Amino acid sequence: MRTNILPDKVSRNSTLWYSGIFLIIWVVLYNNLKTITDFLTESVFGLKAGTHLTEAIRFFIFEFPKVIMLLTLIVFFVGIIRSYFSPEKTRKMLEGKRTFTGNVMASSLGIVTPFCSCSAIPLFLGFMEAGIPLGITFSFLIAAPMINEVAVILLFGMFGWKTALIYVSTGLFIAITAGWVIGKLKLEKWVEEWVYSTKFGESNVIEEKINLQGRIRFGYEAVKEIVGKVWIYVALGIAVGAGAHGFVPEEFMASIMGKSAWYSVPLSVLIGVPLYSNAAGIIPIVSVLIEKGASLGTALAFMMAVIGLSLPEMIILRKVLKMPLILVFVGVVSTGIILVGYLFNYVF
Amino acid sequence: MQKHTCMEIKILGPGCQKCKTLEKVTREVVSEMGLTAEISKEEDIMKIMSYGIMNTPGFVINGKVIFSGRVPSSKEIKEIIAKNQ
């Protein structure tokens, strides 16, 4: 058994080396993607430039590796950053925080704390047990799924850094205000009674000591897990995008999701809430919507509704929250999303 | 560390995909190492909470939480089990 455990120093150095080589290859490939795509479509496949089919194929061959490469790189770094955070540490940081400061902190920590909606219950119980107010807990629960790294990278890859930044800041804004509003409404009575009587065990988690090599390994694990899971959705989404690229007429969506229709924002939120998809699947579709005439605010609102409010998460939360509180939660967050949608349509 | 005659490994998780994966990998690793260990899965949320974790899956050896919220590689699980034997 001993043989496969390398001396720490050797394995540490090789991990760093591999990461360095990986980074160099990444940069070279990424910067030459356009050339490679053109070479593949025109010289290798011998397609004639300018036709719908060629452009659709070119679009796919360019976008798919681009998005996957961005995804791999950022998920890797986010994995490393996340290794510095845990729900336990986040809870400790939020204990005893005042309303507004607490909401801001909880929303920001929601971005970096590793969280999956299947752990929503233990997390909720843990926060309640530590006496963290309901509103602050909600700020966390809203920010964590909505502002996830996959969404941000895909937005960055397809629309540029401004849209990505807008998404993060409005997402934060919604999480902070919605949590604040829920806190002000004093809805503790709508939390299932048993929650308050849950005995939370002494946290006997042994703090794992992690060195840089270990953190890089966390990064690799994150890539394996996330990219391994979402690549197919990215491929499908971009294929739909590529298909629409040459074939669906421009301005197709303009009448339903364009700026001129006042009802477009609430309507797309209404459609988006029951729909559930991960960020990887929805963003290429959003990109098609925008290309075909949907306005940015409407498309972003649709996307936030799909990612941020999901039926499976509601069903999980129903175990700890009574129905009225779930409805308030959905109501407050949807209102926030609708306001953001209108704001964007107005500004851009 | 105190030697246990039979190692007891518990996977804490309400039944999400990650928890199932962790259980599967753990079973594989244990049989590969030729150990006799009692592996079980704890799905009752109240019992899970009694371990004080906030992120599933949790990995418990002989009543001690070793890590939570992630699925390490089988190589790392092997190291962890070897260390906590």
Describe the model:
- The complex is a heterodimer of chains A (348) and B (85).
- With 348 residues, chain A is mainly alpha-helical.
- Chain A folds into 2 domains: 7-83 and 214-228, no CATH class; 87-198 and 247-347, no CATH class.
- Chain A has 17 helices and no strands.
- Chain A has helices at 8-31, 33-44, 52-82, 87-94, 99-112, 120-129, 134-146, 149-159, 161-184, 193-197, 212-247, 254-257, 264-272, 279-291, 296-308, 311-317, 323-347.
- Chain A is flat and about 70 Å long.
- Chain A starts with 7 loop residues before the first helix and ends with a helix.
- The relative contact order of chain A is 0.12.
- Chain B has 85 residues and is an alpha+beta fold.
- Chain B has one domain (7-83): Glutaredoxin (3-Layer(aba) Sandwich), CATH 3.40.30.10.
- Chain B is built from 3 helices and 4 strands, in the order βαβαββα.
- Chain B has helices at residues 17-33, 45-49, 74-83; strands at 7-12, 37-42, 58-61, 64-68.
- Chain B has a 4-stranded mixed beta sheet.
- In chain B, a hairpin with a 2-residue loop joins strand 3 and strand 4 (64-68).
- In chain B, helix 1 crosses helix 3.
- Chain B is globular and about 30 Å long.
Task: Give descriptors for this structure.
heterodimer, A: 348 residues, mainly alpha, 2 domains, 74% helix, disordered N terminus, B: 85 residues, alpha+beta, Glutaredoxin, 4-stranded mixed beta sheet, 3 helices, 38% helix, globular
